[in-house]
Amino acid sequence: MQAKVFLGEKISKYRKRKRLTLDQFAALIAESVDPSRVSKWENELVAPGGKHLPRLLEVLEIDEETYANSVGKKTSSRNPRKISQDLDGAAANVKFWHTIAERQEHRKDVRGLINTAKKRVVISGIALEYVVRKCDKELRGRLRDGVTVGIIISANQEHLLRYYERYSARIYDHLPISHAMYAEFFNTISESERELFAIFETEIPLTHSLGLYDDEIYLSEFMLDHDSSLSPSYSPARGSHSYDIIYAELATLLAESRCLRGNAQRVQIPL
Known about the structure:
By secondary structure, the chain is of the alpha+beta class. The chain has 2 domains: 7-85, 434 Repressor (Amino-terminal Domain) (Orthogonal Bundle), CATH 1.10.260; 97-267, Endonuclease, Chain A (2-Layer Sandwich), CATH 3.30.870. The chain contains 15 helices and 8 strands. It has helices at residues 7-18, 22-29, 35-42, 53-60, 64-68, 80-86, 100-105, 110-116, 129-134, 136-144, 158-164, 171-187, 191-194, 241-256, 264-267, and strands at 94-97, 120-124, 148-154, 197-202, 208-213, 216-221, 233-236, 258-262. An 8-stranded mixed sheet has the order 1-7-6-5-2-3-4-8, sandwiched between helices. Helix 1 packs across helix 3 and helix 2 packs across helix 3. It is elongated.
């Protein structure tokens, strides 16, 4: 039987082996190839067209005849389009990233999303130390522009620290530091900006991080014994079932968390 040729998997392995970004790989194929197109090839959302396929096969060192005789695409969790067909379109409008690095390449990481928000930013996570430490400039910029910002982190309690210790390295150090840094952040913003900002703590055990940036929503998984930057994340289209479920969870989480500082009512999102 002719072996299958999975182009998405081949592209991913080639880029990792050569240490190429999406932009660099796209440039290898043709000047007209957008990096987002490469991402879609890699995740098997779309198949390469005839215009770029010969060069793509050349770069990947795949014989054209071998590919032509191949059975086709792999049916796996890395093929959202195939999943959507199997489930009658249920997963057709979901953007997926394997790591934070991939989101950064698409400018869909937390810093990029905060920086482009026009109305609101609401983020939940265990400690979210990265946000307060690395996105300070972006947070302050949004508040100056009238954007509401809500942050939800875990309460600093022993039973929760034990729960999270395999999901977040050095959580016993990071969570108290994060609480202190958000308190300091609040103390250094103006009175008018405090009306737009709120920091919450929750005793609800979190299984993932959620982010709402205007109307875009993102979910990032927590994985046992793995750094969060290496965990998968996705963004369902507004109006889809997944979007509504995730949005409702974030709204409930806000409503059931304790506001530590700021204007809790201003940050709430309607169900």
